[in-house]
Every structure is written in C-alpha cells, then in structure tokens.
Design goal:
homotetramer, 215 residues, mainly alpha, Arc Repressor Mutant, subunit A, Tetracycline Repressor, domain 2, 2 domains, 9 helices, 69% helix
Chain lengths: 215, 215, 215, 215
DNA sequence: GATGAATGAGATTTCATTCAT
DNA sequence: TATGAATGAAATCTCATTCAT
C-alpha cells in the first residue's frame, strides 16, 4: 500500500537550492529533508510542525535545512507542487462514466487511484485543510488541486441527464471523497479498502445521476 | 443568517471560573471572552490563535483571561462542548426519510438546520479538522459530535432496502455535508444557500438509497 | 504540644490597620489573616508564599487583605515582631548554669522552653533562614532575635572557666539548637522530644565548659 | 580561600545538554552558565533567582540557557549533584577521633576541609535550607548530603564511651557546623577562620564524648 | 467592612533564523 | 557542504496591587 513520501524523486528544490547546482550528496540531503517534512506534517500538522522536528527527523542540522529551503513554507511548497501535479494527472485519467455496472467499475477503479494518491500525499492535503495557511499562494495551490478534480467530475456529470447542477455536485462529491479518506487515515474509522471503495463508488455513482429520471 | 457565536448564553465556564462564584460582571466578561475566542478561531484557526488575539478582541487583559480559562485549550473546550451538544440535538431531530419527494423534503429541511448549526459552530468544527489538536480529549469531543450524526443517519439508511453498508455510507455522507460547508465558508466556493441545500439533499437522498433496486 | 500560630492574640496590626480603629469584626479578620500567613509561610516558605495563598487559607479576599496589610512583607513583619519578643523573653529566663547535674537540669528545662517557642514561631524563624529576605529590616529582626539568645548564653559561658571564646561558642550553640529543631520539624528526622532535649542539653552543657580543665 | 564555583569542571550537564554532543564551545558556555548559576543562587537565593539573572551573569541569552538546561531547577540539580559528591568524599575522609589533643587536631583538620567545601558549595547548601524546594528530588539530594556526614560522625561517636546517642548527637553536631558556617557567610558574624575552627573543633570534640565519665 | 473583578508588569519558555567553524 | 551554537522576538502564564460595587 502506498505510504506518504513514496513516489518518484521530487524534481525541484526550495528557493535556496535552486540557486546552486546540487551534486549527489546535496540531492540526497534534500530528499531526506523532503521525506522528513512529509513525516512531520503527517504527525503534527502544518502549523504545529517545527523546523526543529524536521531536522531531527532528517538527522541533520538547522544550518543544513536553510541551505535547501528558505523556511518551512518553502519546504511545504515543494511538496505541495508535487501533490498538485499528481492530482492533475489523476483528473486527466477520469474517462466517461456510464450509468450501469460498467460505469460503476470505471469509477471504482479511478477512485482506487485517488485513494492511493491521497495516501501518498495525505499530509499535504490535510495541511491544506488546516483552514488557515500563512500564505495565499499555498491556499491557492490547494484549491487548484481540488478544483482540477472537481472540474473533470463536473464534465462527466454534465454528460448525464440528471437534473443536479454538475459543478455543485462535483464539488460535493470531491468533498466527500477527500474527507472520508481523511476520516479513515486520521480518525479511528476502521474500514477496509474494499468497503471504502464500494461505499465511495456507490454514492458517487448514484450522485452523478441524481435527479436522472432514467434511473 | 446564523453567525459564529450566536446562540444562547453558554452554560459552563473554563476550569478556573468553575472554582469561583461568578457575579453578573464576571459572567459578562466570560461571555465576551467566549465570543472573542470564537471570532479568533474563525479568523486564524486554532493553532495560530494566540491568547493575545483573544484578549484584544474581547478588549480585556491577559490577566483577566486567566481568571476565566486555564489556557487556550480550556477556552476551546468550553466552546467545543457547546458544539457537541448542538450536534446531538440535531441528530435527535432527524426523522425517518422516505424514498419519494416527501422524504427529500424532510431531508432538505434537516440539512438546512445542519447548515445553520455549522455556521454557528463552524470555527470549532474546523479546528477539530486541524488534524492535530494538542489533547486527545478535544479530538475525542470532535469525533463524538460527528459520530452522533453518522449513527443517526446510519439508522435511517438501515430502514431502506439499499445494499450499501449503512454505517459506511452514513460516515461518507456526513463527511460530504461537513466538508462542503467548509468549502463554502472557508474557500472561495460561491453557491447560494438554496443551491447548496439542493445539492446536498439530492446526493444524500440518492446516497441513502444507493443500490436500492426499487429506484 | 505547641503548634504554629498558638499563643496570645497578637497586639499590633499591619500598616493600614494601624490607621484605623478596629472593631470586633475587624480584629477577627486580622487574626484570621495572621494565622493564615503563619500557615502559608510554614507550608511554602516566605518567598514562595503568595498573597493569594494567604487569602485562600483565611477564606477571605484580596481586597480584604490589603485593608489590613500593606503587602506580604508587612504581614510577615507583624508575625516576626511577635517572634522577636518571645525570643527576648526566653533569653531573659536563662539563669546561671552550673557544671554538674543541677546545671544540666536547668539547661534542659530552658531548652524545653526553646523547643516550645520554636514550634510556635517556626515558620517565621525558618523564613529568616531563607538567606535572602527582601528587606534589610526583616533580616535585622531575625538577627536580633538570635543575637538575644546568643548574648545571654555567652554571658553564662563567660561565667565558667572554659577556654573557649564565649561569644563564638554561644553562636555555635544557638546555631545547633536552632538547626536541629529545623531538621526535626522540616526534614524527616524522627526523634522524640525527650531524646531531642537530652541530646541538645548534653552537648550544650559540655560545650559551655569546653576547654575547662576542671571537667 | 575557596570561593563558590571553584573546583574541577563539572562532569554532567542539564537535561537538554545530555541529548546533544557538546563541542568545546558548548562545554565552555555550559560552564559559564553553571558558574553564573552558582553566583546568582549565592546572591539572591534559589527562589528569588531568575533565569534572567543567570543569563545576564553569564553574558549570554535566554535562548542559549534553554539549550543547556530545561529550567532553573535543572541547573540547580546539576550543581547539587556536584555538591553531594563533594560531601560524600568529605565524609569518607573522617578517620577515628581520639579523646586527647591528637583527636582534637584530627577533627580540626577535617573541619577545615568542611569549611572549605562549604564555601565552594555554600549557595547550594543554603538553597537546600530554603525550606521548600519545588521538587522532592532536590530536597532528597540535600538530605542525602547531610546524612552522609552525619552517619560517618555517628560511627566515630559510637567508638567512644560516651552515653549520648551517637545518631542524635551526630545530627546535632552537623547542624551546628553547617549553621555556623551559614551565619559566618550570610549574616554579619565576623570571626576569623582560626577562631571559627577552634570553636567548632572544641565543641564537636567535647560533644563527641559527652557523657563520657572518663573526661 | 468585604469582595469579586481587572490590570499590567514581569517572569518563563519556545523557536525561526543567522553565524562561525 | 555540514553543523553546533547563538540569538532575540514573541508567546504563555503569574501575581501583587488597585478598583468599583
């Protein structure tokens, strides 16, 4: 199962790192810091995370941290951009959803990918949910990634005959999918992966056709 | 429309206040602090809120704050307990939901009450969502209030003939309702109250019957 | 057995009380505060004692405290003056001490009175021992009371034929008597009253004749 | 003459310092803080000492203090442990004490070492005497160091033929020695070192044989 | 006379960031 | 490139004292 911090090596670095050409050791250190950041944001949330926590988790020093990132926000931004692009890739992959069993399976498979992506980037997504990030730029990034999903889902709903407003319904469904994943990961909600996907797929599927007289 | 901090005078005080006999002026000051706390948690979130912000908003002094509350967490706990009891009242009021238009209207009316309650206690609910509160007790309170809603909805779903797991579906629907309200209040999502209720009611209604062959 | 705060009603009040004519209720309140002060100094020491502790122990209010005393130091000063006069009375009562059994018994009886007085005024004496009182006046009071004892004992030593310096020996013996009482009351030293008196009387008695070739 | 803070470099650090590997500069800073702590405890007593006083005396910053010690108590504990071990060393060095001149000289020499040790660690010992330390652990440390001395002296008394209870007499004599040193250092008692030692040695010596019919 | 309430100065502690090696 | 050390601004909390009722 995917876990936070999995995935390909992250491409870009924080502001200070971009001014320098990183060699092998430098890239290694930066990866350690990014992984540590993900871990700490996961455990403590964004606001409560301290640079000290990150450098302890990365087994490095304060001085080193600031060689690679301007500050905590800069570190988060790098992680966040990676998350946004994963979400955009995900959005791109949602094909048309038919009313019957076939459509249900398409949706379920796509939701399985969402769940996986959420687990990889959960700490970042949850941090976005911490209502009040310091910087508008980060808030915008968060909105963007959810918007990408919602827009694509709205397109798919618009292809149906339902009477529900596609834009609104899409946002509501994204809200549900995101939040249920949050409950499962962060609260004590116990539910196995199959049941989670069945539940989400069922509701999203009928939700997409809500008000459709043909059903 | 309801706004954060509206509602009946809060019954209990923080730890220090409970040890003393409050007179009229004292009760007034405590209410000022509670209202100020709600405002500040709303504007800055729980973690970022400083006692200093609260006392400024309440136009009083640090010393006074600590006459009534042991610390920020204590203030939050009082607000949170009030929120929990509002949520429990709300849960009690959800009657049976029939499949047709009648059931839809019942649901929509109840969701209107939820939206109202959310707006009154939104800052608290959003703070619960800040993944990591300092104390387990507070986290538990948050879980309790959402659980109260989910259990009642699960009961209502169980009365239907759908094939979806009532417990899981209920949690998913609560997640959706909560989070969409959050998006609307805290993100820039613009959607008027009627459309919000239509969307939620439609999806929750079909969601409750998901997998019902009779539909 | 004597306990802190026993003894006759204290004659004088703190600075603010002396400006007013106290009636029955006022005198009662002042006595409550003095007794509470003794209790709190006993339990927490002078420096750590807070006005708040005193008013809680006296079951009265901050406002009331300042009707009777200018501050914590003022309260202490009243207790301290009472202690000084008790010490002076005690010093006056030490008669000549002969070398043999008779002298031993005289000394032992007098030490019994000292022990009793120490128990009554222990909190004050221990506060004096808190090396650093805020005000020189209080430090002087403390020194005065121990000096009164030491001078009288020095006189008694000077009447003997020993070679020890009477002034120095007297201070040393007072130091011992005071501190052993402190150990017994404040540390866990368990020793019954008779053994305590035997020990003190034996050592003080031989100490007074130290260097006396006739022994 | 010995002065507070003299002596070998202290081996252990406070809680936070023990988690880190200190380099030369770090060890230097820690020593500065320990010396400053000794100075401030000496001048103001434990309770009245502020972290602010310590950092000013050490010419460093608040932040730095907390790199090395968890708080004032932690700093004191380190100093106290050093004092305890000095007292234990001292206790180990008291050999048998004979009745005559020879024994007197042995005792006097040992008391000279005590006086020296007291001067080195006086601030700590006096702080222990501030009846009420915050933590029981610190109080226990204080008791331990005086107990070490008293037990050894009790052994020496038990070797004599006197009728006085060795345990009780030993505590009384330690009380005297400690307290007289305190009076000399902290009160205005003027007495030169030779006279101080003569006085203490005379009284302790006869005290050890109190009740001995052979004298 | 008595009291609950309010105040604000001051103490403690944390932590992001910079610096010297 | 890495790191331990240092800093100081800012946050939390306490408590003696004054005030209004």
């Amino acid at each position: 199962m995917a876990r936070p911090g999995d995935g390909p090596p992250l491409p870009t670095g924080g502001a200070p790192a971009q001014l320098r050409a990183l060699r092998a050791q430098g890239r290694r250190t930066m990866r350690k810091l990014l992984a540590a950041g993900m871990k700490v944001f996961d455990e403590r949330g964004y606001q409560a995370a301290r640079v000290d926590d990150v450098v302890k988790a990365a087994r490095t020093s304060h001085g080193t941290f600031y060689l690679y990132f301007a500050n905590k926000e800069d570190l988060f931004r790098v992680l966040a951009e990676d998350c946004v692009s994963a979400m955009e890739d995900l959005a791109d992959d949602l094909g048309p959803v038919a009313p019957g069993t076939e459509g249900y399976e398409v949706l379920r498979a796509w939701l399985a990918r969402f769940v996986d992506t959420y687990r990889r980037h959960g700490p970042v997504i949850r941090a976005w949910a911490e209502a009040h990030l310091d910087s508008p730029e980060l808030a915008r990034l968060g909105g963007a990634s959810m918007n990408a999903l919602a827009s694509r889902i709205a397109e798919r709903i618009a292809e149906q005959d339902g009477s529900v407003d596609p834009g609104h319904a899409a946002v509501a469904l994204v809200a549900m999918v995101e939040r249920l994943n949050y409950y499962v990961l962060s609260r004590g909600i116990t539910i196995d992966d199959d049941a989670l996907l069945d539940t989400l797929a069922s509701i999203v599927h009928v939700g997409m056709f809500a008000g459709d007289p043909g059903r």
